[in-house]
From TrEMBL:
Keywords: Signal. This is Por secretion system C-terminal sorting domain-containing protein. Residues 35-268 form the GH16 domain. Residues 272-363 form the Fibronectin type-III domain. PANTHER family: GLYCOSIDE HYDROLASE FAMILY 16 PROTEIN, GLYCOSYL HYDROLASE-RELATED. SUPFAM superfamilies: Concanavalin A-like lectins/glucanases, Fibronectin type III. CDD domains: FN3, GH16_laminarinase_like.
Length: 550
């Protein structure tokens, strides 16, 4: 269901119908389009504790009056030497594709213990019984990538009508970490259109043409983005396992599907984009917004943004302004951007690149380093920044431990308790912005770092919205410690007491310079422009002040 409103919510619009099943012929499923996956995995049971047999019986999957029905039935059934008490169907499409849009109009069951799913797997998945396995099955799950367009019945903590979309990747160790959801009205009685829009840049999920979740990792590699190879479709109802207990009164449940449609762009495009504009939008101490727009006959425009040694690639529908937030920048620093526009076919705008320059603002916030944990432990610790931007507070944490893999970060609000998944902005640094805060109000947050084999939770840190502070521990006579600020090539420290050591840190707590030689003049010409923390030691006492390098 490609509408004008849904076009504005995705980055690439796909318009050419390349594969579909409208389910127009009554009886068995179309065997030229679908494969029944019935082979049990090794061990004799399906994954996730599921208790069904998938069959090729017409009682479990059939077409009638324009609809495909997949039916889960309570009945004893023996196959491959194993008897189970429930049957269902799991269909693989015999069509695989790279990038495009999938629309599936379906009515799903909501019975307790059922797990209806519309999803995708990499064509290269090594899974016995799958249609593509014999010829292409070279890659284990989740390295093949999994895109869950719609799942229901496995989120018991969510309200009625909640449907979930998710991505499974090596970076999440296959766990349901990258996911979003929304409420579907009158679920179980009404048909809804479940969609995924998959481009080289991001994956967006939609319900009835309205986008509700986009996956777009800052770093795209084989671990976070195994979505650069062909995938195929799966339709099924699983029983039990993570879907919970099946009531003894259960007899059967059905999923009805009106159509499955896949769109791509087939037009051979030789025309380059026109009317390309690029301007600077909102600027904070750590982000710069770039506003991009161009038109192209193909309906889509790709943008490449280069600054320093960094590149951001994105896309948007033709003629629709694209807002790109460049993250993780240093305060009071000028950044130069080189921005190019092309279409998806690679035709370049005639006057590429456009050049922009913007300077980030100063910081209003607090930062620090700690090792304390309220759950688990930290071998090295973590850095943190609370930064007020207008009426919002951007909270950034960096995990310093290097012995933890598959890390995902969640922000914890203390009162009332709420958990938010944070964005991995780079390396082991995670960020989340809480909006509409009151200047002067006190907030308290912690971060849970989940990783392979466990989790560690920081202590709760209290911050006054709008406060501008620095790390200060056992400060000695601050009036006896001063320096000219900003600094250029050298920092000259004026003090009436002896200095034992001087250290300079980034705002995230990374040590970039240390001097234990008694001196009041320290060379800083090799430091990049920006804001730092200057720590001066006298015995066991330390004082820290902010320092700007120009």
């Amino acid at each position: 269901m490609i509408t004008a409103s849904s076009k504005a919510q995705v980055d690439v619009v796909y318009t050419d119908l390349v594969w579909s099943d409208e389910f127009e012929t009554n009886g068995a499923i179309n065997s030229t389009k679908w494969h029944h996956q019935t082979q049990l995995p090794n061990g004799g049971s399906w994954f996730n504790g599921e208790v069904q047999h998938y069959t090729n019986l017409i009682s479990n999957s059939f077409v009638n009056e324009g609809f495909l029905t997949i039916k889960a039935i309570k009945e004893p059934y023996t196959n491959q030497g194993v008897t189970k008490q429930y049957t269902s169907a799991r269909l693989n499409s015999k069509f695989a594709f790279l990038y495009g849009r999938v629309d599936i109009r379906a009515k799903i069951p909501t019975n307790q213990g059922t797990w209806p799913a519309l999803w995708m797997l990499g064509k290269n998945v090594n899974e016995i019984g799958g249609f593509f396995n014999a010829e292409f099955g070279t890659t284990n799950w989740p390295a093949c990538g999994e895109i869950d367009i719609m799942e229901h019945g496995i989120t018991p903590s969510q309200p009625a009508g909640f449907i979930q979309s998710a991505l499974h990747t090596p970076s999440s160790f296959g766990n349901t970490v990258n996911h979003g959801g929304t409420i579907a009205s009158n679920l179980g009685n009404d048909f809804h259109v479940y969609s995924v829009n998959w481009s080289p840049f991001q994956i967006t999920f939609l319900l009835d043409g309205v986008a509700f979740y986009t996956y777009n990792p800052a770093v795209k590699n084989a671990s976070t983005w195994p979505f650069d190879a062909e995938q195929y479709l799966l339709l099924n109802i699983a029983m039990g396992g993570v879907a919970g207990n099946i009531p003894s009164s259960f007899t059967q449940a059905s999923m009805e599907i009106d159509y499955v449609r896949v769109y791509q762009n087939l037009q051979v495009d030789t025309e380059a984009p026109t009317n390309f504009t690029a301007t600077v939008g909102n600027v904070t101490s750590s982000t710069i917004e770039l506003l991009l727009n161009a038109t192209d006959n193909s309906g889509n425009v790709a943008y490449s943004i280069n600054y320093g040694d960094q590149t951001i690639n994105t896309a948007n529908p033709s003629g629709v302004e694209k807002s790109v937030i460049v993250p993780n920048l240093m305060p009071t620093t000028t950044y130069n951007f080189s921005i190019s526009a092309s279409d998806v076919a690679g035709n370049q705008y005639s006057n590429n690149p456009l050049l922009l320059s913007a300077t980030t603002t100063g910081v209003t916030g607090c930062s620090g380093t700690d090792t304390e944990a309220q759950q688990g432990s930290f071998s090295t610790g973590y850095n943190y920044i609370f930064e007020t931007i207008g009426n919002d507070v951007k909270i950034t944490f960096e995990l310093l431990d290097t012995d933890k893999v598959g890390v995902v970060a969640f922000l914890w609000r203390q009162t009332p308790f709420t958990e938010y998944q944070m964005t991995n902005v780079s390396g082991s640094t995670y960020s989340y912005t809480i909006t509409n805060q009151t200047i002067g109000a006190t907030i308290s947050y912690a971060v849970k770092f989940a990783y392979a084999g466990g989790l560690s939770v920081t202590k709760y840190l209290t911050y006054v919205v709008g406060d501008n502070c620095s790390l200060t521990v056992n400060a000695f006579e601050l009036d006896k410690f001063s320096f000219q600020n900003p600094v250029t090539d050298f920092i000259n420290i004026h003090t009436t007491v002896a200095i034992d050591k001087v250290e300079i840190y980034t705002l995230l707590g990374k040590l970039v310079l240390s001097s234990s030689t008694p001196t009041e003049s320290i060379a800083v010409k090799n430091l990049a422009k920006g804001v730092y923390l200057l720590a001066v030691y006298q015995g066991d006492k330390k004082s820290i002040k902010k320092m700007i390098v120009k």
